[in-house]
Design goal:
Length: 519
RNA sequence: GGCCCGUUCGUCUAGGGGUUAGGACAUCUCCCUUUCACGGAGGAAACACGAGUUCGAUUCUCGUACGGGCUACCA
């Protein structure tokens, strides 16, 4: 009863605890997102902790990248490296001393022991086992034949310790016990402890391993729900044991092991190489490797809206139980729950990602888009400030016309270039198929009739166009595409007559003449 | 190899002892449109296999197959 009450009163706290070994992969972003959604949903806190206990794998800039990526995604950090909080520091390397005492506590209580085997010796054990078609594991079955404080006399152990012989501290996992725990996504999961190895808790360099560090931190930081990738499931029993041996079982967080993101094709989990191979980003932000200088694409730079990116990621492995697909962050928070997280890994679908962006693009405000576009157009086409194509009203109309035809904002300058500058060349397929010199009189009539127009509107220009065509015994279809190409250069684009009206009499006349003279 | 997790259209998924197995992306057809899109309508498309339980299994159980993860002094 007390336990349940305690449980109910505990403020929900989740964390995202990446290791700064490079840019955040989209799978990692999804893990962070789910942890964030869950915390927000329950009015709790979301923390960012940096797990940098492996100094060999430290990559400069990775931590900054992680913070920037989360920020771009709209995942707000309540506590952590970038914002501080009551449990500072949030970087494990700076908490180094805290871990040691817990490792020692476990040694004293008999749940952990010193091991002096060198990396080479263990490697040799593995090779020997492999040769015999067996697997070497440092565990209950093998530990008594290895070099550790369980096999050595206390004097010998003492001597080794005093002579600064490198050692690690290992968890003493009991033989043949059933370890059961309840995963938020998978339900009850069982392991036999004989198959769990004696995990290293404290490395010979004095740093803790993930296994010890994340538990000490989660406990101290009062984490209630530990959300992580499925790759951690096999080591979960060891973690349960550590909580038990530290007498923290009542404060142990609920674990949720998320399914992994798989390659769009073929086998295996999604990797950076798939992005390169298939042409889609696997990182939220562009990343330049500080060692090799190699640049990896990011969703942000590719032109994705963070809302679309998050929306897409959220739907990969989770569903609301309804048919809604487009979600704002707040809607995701309201709808999120672990019992709608799918158990199986999800193949990443780059095409659906594009679709999500297109959906979000349609929702964008025209005026805002126009202001962004105006800047880009000015720069892209090197136009002077006072150029008529730069006026907000004009650009807004462009946005309105272009919007349903694009999936990314940056396509506007390319697909709609003719709205801002005259074409440099004409679609050769249309010209080749449709152009005949006999058409010249029609176009000459058309141009003079348009030039006489008092109100150069879509309706009027269209009316005149059909009228002149009729008088020349030409079906509109024969010349419509040509007219489009003469004015825009492209075979397809926004509605023809509204475009003509927008461009205006003078511009259209100029473009038509230029085109005609080059025929 | 061992251990763990998983398996519904090509993909993301809903569902769950009796359903015409639903939606979305992609794909195809048609409509709208004298272009391209958007939009609308429709089509094709799935319960891995084998046993068992049951009046009845896609749904429950067990096997098999397949997929994924782990098997480091990495996380």
């Amino acid at each position: 009863m007390h336990f349940i009450l305690n449980e109910m009163l505990r403020r929900v706290r989740t964390r995202f605890a990446p290791s700064p070994t490079g840019p955040l992969h989209i799978g990692g972003v999804r893990t962070a997102l789910y942890a964030y959604l869950f915390a927000r949903k329950h009015g709790g806190d979301f923390l960012l902790r940096i797990e940098d206990t492996d100094q060999n794998r430290f990559v400069p800039g990775a931590e900054e990248y992680i913070i920037e990526a989360l920020q771009w995604c709209g995942i707000h950090i309540d506590e952590g490296v970038s914002v501080g909080g009551p449990h500072t520091p949030y970087r494990q390397s700076e908490r180094k001393e805290m871990y040691r005492q817990y490792a020692m506590q476990l040694v004293k209580s008999g749940h952990a022991y010193y091991a002096f085997d060198t990396a080479e010796e263990l490697e040799q054990q593995r090779k020997t086992a492999e040769a015999a078609k067996q697997t070497f594991a440092y565990g209950s079955a093998s530990r008594m034949s290895l070099k550790n404080s369980l096999t050595l006399s206390s004097d010998e152990t003492e001597k080794l310790l005093n002579s600064n012989t490198p050692y690690v501290i290992r968890l003493k996992v009991p033989a043949d016990e059933t370890i059961v725990f309840n995963d938020l996504i998978r339900g009850e999961v069982q392991f036999n402890s004989s198959l769990v190895d004696d995990k290293v808790l404290l490395k010979s360099d004095g740093m803790p391993t993930y296994h010890l560090a994340h538990i000490v931190d989660d406990y101290q930081m009062e984490i209630t729900h530990a959300i992580r990738g499925e790759e951690w499931l096999p080591s979960a029993p060891a973690h349960i044991l550590i909580y038990q041996y530290l007498n923290w079982k009542d404060k142990m967080p609920h674990y949720a092991h998320l399914p992994l993101l798989l390659k769009p094709d073929g086998k295996g989990k999604l990797s950076k190489r798939d992005g390169d191979r298939l042409g889609f980003p696997v990182f939220p932000l562009e990343w330049k490797d500080p060692f090799s200088g190699e640049v990896s694409n990011g969703y942000r730079e590719r032109g994705y809206y963070p809302e679309a990116f998050i929306n897409m990621l959220a739907m990969l492995g989770w569903n609301p139980g309804t048919e809604q697909e487009i979600f704002t962050m707040q809607e995701l928070i309201d709808a999120f729950s672990f019992d709608h997280v799918h158990k199986a890994g999800a193949r990443f679908d780059p095409e659906k990602a594009v679709w999500f962006n297109a959906q979000w693009l349609q929702k964008q405000d025209d005026t805002q888009m126009a202001m962004r576009l105006s800047k880009v157009v000015k720069q892209h086409f090197n136009l002077p400030d006072e150029h008529r194509s730069l006026s907000l009203e004009y650009v807004k109309e462009c946005v309105r016309l272009l919007k349903p035809r694009i999936q990314f904002e940056q396509e506007m300058t390319v697909k709609g270039s003719y709205l801002f500058v005259a074409p440099q060349e004409y679609d050769s397929t249309v010209i080749g198929k449709k152009w005949k010199p006999e058409l010249m009189p029609f176009f000459n009539h058309l141009l003079s009739a348009w030039a006489d127009l008092k109100s150069f509107t879509a309706e009027e220009t269209e009316h005149v166009f059909k009228d002149i065509a009729g008088k020349n015994n030409i079906k509109p279809g024969e010349v419509l595409q040509l007219t489009r190409v003469f004015i825009s250069g492209q075979a397809q684009g926004v509605d023809l007559f509204p475009m003509i009206a927008m461009l205006g009499n003078a511009e259209v006349n100029q473009r038509m003449k230029a085109a005609l003279s080059s025929m």
